[in-house]
Amino acid sequence: MSDGLNMSLRIRRTPYTNRVEKAGVRGFSVVNHMLLPKAFQTTVEEDYWHLKNHVQIWDVSCQRQVEIRGPDALRLIQWMTPRDICRCEIGQCMYIPITDVDGGLINDPVLLKLSEDHFWLSIADSDVLLYAKGISIGMGLDVSIEEPDVSPLAVQGPKAEDLLAKIFGEDVRDIKFFKFGWIDFAGTKQLISRSGYSRQGGFEIYLKGSHLGEALWDLIWESGKSFNILPGCPNLIERIEGGLLSYGNEMTRENNPLEIGLGKFCKLDGTIDFIGRNSLQKIAADGVKRKIMGILFDEGRCTTCSNPWPVKVGDQKVGYITSAIWSPRFETNVALSMIDRNFWDVGQTVSLQIPERGFSSGEIVEIPF
Amino acid sequence: MSDGLNMSLRIRRTPYTNRVEKAGVRGFSVVNHMLLPKAFQTTVEEDYWHLKNHVQIWDVSCQRQVEIRGPDALRLIQWMTPRDICRCEIGQCMYIPITDVDGGLINDPVLLKLSEDHFWLSIADSDVLLYAKGISIGMGLDVSIEEPDVSPLAVQGPKAEDLLAKIFGEDVRDIKFFKFGWIDFAGTKQLISRSGYSRQGGFEIYLKGSHLGEALWDLIWESGKSFNILPGCPNLIERIEGGLLSYGNEMTRENNPLEIGLGKFCKLDGTIDFIGRNSLQKIAADGVKRKIMGILFDEGRCTTCSNPWPVKVGDQKVGYITSAIWSPRFETNVALSMIDRNFWDVGQTVSLQIPERGFSSGEIVEIPF
User: Fold this and answer.
1) Can you give A269-283 as a three-state secondary structure string?
2) What is the pLDDT of residues A320-361, one digit of tens each?
3) Which residues of chain A have a CB within 8 Å of the CB of B134?
4) A148 contacts in chain B (CB < 8 Å)
5) Closest chain B residue to A275 measured between Cα atoms?
6) Per the count of CB atoms within 10 A, which of A14, A153, A235, A354 is most buried?
7) Whole-angstrom Cα distance, residue B52 to residue B93?
8) What residues are paired with B119 via a beta bridge?
9) What distance in Å separates the CA atoms of residue B2 and residue B280, rounded to the nearest whole number?
10) pLDDT digits over A89-147, tens only?
11) Are the Cβ atoms of A4 and B3 closer than 8 angstroms?
12) Nearest-CA residue of chain A relative to B107?
């Protein structure tokens, strides 16, 4: 079934993998040592239009939770992020960059505040648990740090609210963006947030209890048929058009949050302290040397960007492409790129060096597209 | 080419990936956010016999290095491992479990001592760099912790020594097991160790400088033709038969080093201190409750173990299989398993519950097989 990806225990299946396979998954990626479905029976373009018009069910179990509890939980998390989390309320989700001493990005999780001393970090692809544990051990903090048996299932698209209201009751409509509430399912209370890795609206159910996974999938799937539900996954076209960044693609430890457009989440006025503060204050004072920009380019449908494609102006390398795909809406290729200062003007002409394709001409634009 | 694995920048290519593709790779795994080839043109059995009789070239760049340098480097690493590293000499490799506060395994890297204050940890599949950074930040240590541009290329099999002596000179023959030396390549000095993830002998070249990757591959490939060289990768049959454990398969943070047979690498007499010492002392005093054992079972060629297969005695679950495959040498299936105390006797009959196959009868054996 999955010819190109070698399977073993190390690449963890999820509570939904059996269902995902039954639904005809054609490929996976690996995130946080776990399978993430990447393609079903439709093309990425068909999938894109479906996501924008209907509703999809996504196995995003790989968004693992790092559960941090105890008297020092808030202190530890604040130490890990430049964002001021002291005003985060119980029931709130907060996107928080996590930084290294030099300001480099370790991860960009969503923080969920379950109680005053109980948090989840819903992480992108790096072992934040080990970073948190290391800091905690080194500082002698009074916290527990574990990966709970929680596997998010996303329901995304414009019909997601109607579908989930039908299944779990009208109260889900009252959940505001980046807030969470609770639903009853199979005799358990389960956390549900209005969030997800698309710009089409929707929810994520943080299912606690792997044994309930197939029942939850089946319930949503069956009820979803009248809403034209399909199995899906984060859609590369929709993600790039929407300017949704991806850890490991648009950012790594080589990047600071300021250059990837996360300056608004960095409190650098000295009122909070965190790992990398001095470095980020200096970067902010000097001004970033490069930043994430969009690029439009047209040379037929582009291939997958699995190496950073050089971006040039004349003979000078001025940046690189991190993610790119053909956009059926714009009828051209859309790309996210890291571009040097002096070349940020919208309309700047650049040339892209695409493997096996030679040079294409492109144009700098703002993101989201 | 790689239909089942979705590609992106996040899943990093290696300095050898172009060559691996040219050599006809049929599939990859992902380790440390990087591609690991898993199959070429031969079957896993053909590959097994070839590895045992000839020589292979393996792209094991995913064995990333965590470089720890500075006055506190030795102190930090000793704090991370139960193994006494004070007698590790410059030029030596040492297999060191890395533990959590509760004794759970974070990783099982090979330590390379480059100088008194300069080490590499050649890691299995978890972000040891983040653990080390966290501890260092928390303790305020004087070390730098980075991932250098080092990409190991393994040359494995009984003809590896002859091949490398032909290319790099007779001195490579003098490198003892788990020691390293230096070779000249393209005007650079490169580290070479007698080591590798097989029991067939061989070397690993820790190539520094990605730009040299294809030239190194080509040199070994061309010179290797007269030795019947083939492209390869860690072979599951050979690994299981040889009792080589794999982080993420045979061990996770749920396992302590004592139960997976690494007790000899744990110095618990109180002469060194490390994270998890108290927990491991208690586990050692109580005796482990389960440990890694081999199992032989015969019911035709088994499928891939991508879920822990339950192991039973009568109606009682007494353990689970972590890795299994058909062994052409033993003409039966061989498996690694975690088995509860009281069921460790060689010859113990067990029954295995294999998905879609029902029950098979098996027999407990020692490892290596």
Assistant:
1) CCCCCCCCHHHHHHH
2) 999 999 999 999 999 999 999 999 999 999 999 998 888 899
3) 130-138
4) none
5) B137
6) A235
7) 24
8) B68, B113
9) 43
10) 999 999 999 999 999 999 999 999 999 999 999 999 999 999 999 999 999 999 999 99
11) yes
12) A130
